[in-house]
Amino acid sequence: MNELLLIVMAYCIGSVPTAVWISKSLFGIDIRDYGSGNAGATNTFRVLGSKWGTVVMMVDILKGVVATSLYILLPGYLSDELHRTNLMIGLGLSAVIGHIFPIWAGFKGGKGVATLLGMAVAIQPVVAICCVGVFLLVLYLTRFVSLSSILSGVSFMIFILFIFNERETLYRIFAVLVALMVVLTHQKNIGRILKGTEGKIPILKHRDRRRQRRED
Fold it and tell me: pTM to 2 decimals?
């Protein structure tokens, strides 16, 4: 019963619609009416710019960290690594589901990548840091938040299965599901990238202007 209560709490934390609340309170719009229609960091970067996109991303990551760490409210899990990891995965997934289907925003949210990252930070921070490195490198090279999210999600699976060789079966299954979910939820983005119509976020403007001048 205590575990069920924590899972509900994790869902409610994940349901906090960061992008929706920021867009409505500061800009008088609903972020879901613009861009891709998603209430996540990627669409916020696209519609509101890098500043607010970064804010949304950080808060959504924090949601995953806090929700996954709720296990500390049950002292019995502190000394049992296997059961603790299993509970953390359940809590983290509840937060991700909350982000995708937020009760506070009509069950229409984002894709859950940032909250997934927060979950990874809470469970295995070294892997999470590696995934962040992949995300930032791809973002620097391409300025596609969607592509950065996809490759960081796939790299999470690679890190867990092959590089760090995680032995916990449930965690390995989870890593594969993360990669599949990230790819499936970004199908439209993948299509736009292939067509050359995917929007880039407005960072590294000075670099782009220098490159444009050289091409001219």
Answer: 0.86
Residue 211: is it exposed, middle or buried by C-beta count within 10 angstroms (0-12/13-18/19+)? exposed
Q: How many domains does the chain have?
A: 1
Contact (Cβ atoms closer than 8 angstroms) between residue 24 and residue 30: yes
Tokens of 134: 């992949």
Distance CA 22, CA 129 (A): 27
Please list the alpha-helical segments (H only) found in 70-186: 81-100, 113-123, 125-142, 145-158, 169-185
Residue 51 lies in domain: 2-215
Amino acid 72: pLDDT: 94
Phi, psi (deg, nearest 5) at residue 102: -75, 125
The string of pLDDT tens digits covering residues 68-121 is: 999 999 998 888 888 898 999 999 999 999 999 999 999 999 999 999 999 999
Tell me the C-alpha distance between 113 and 95, whole Å.
11
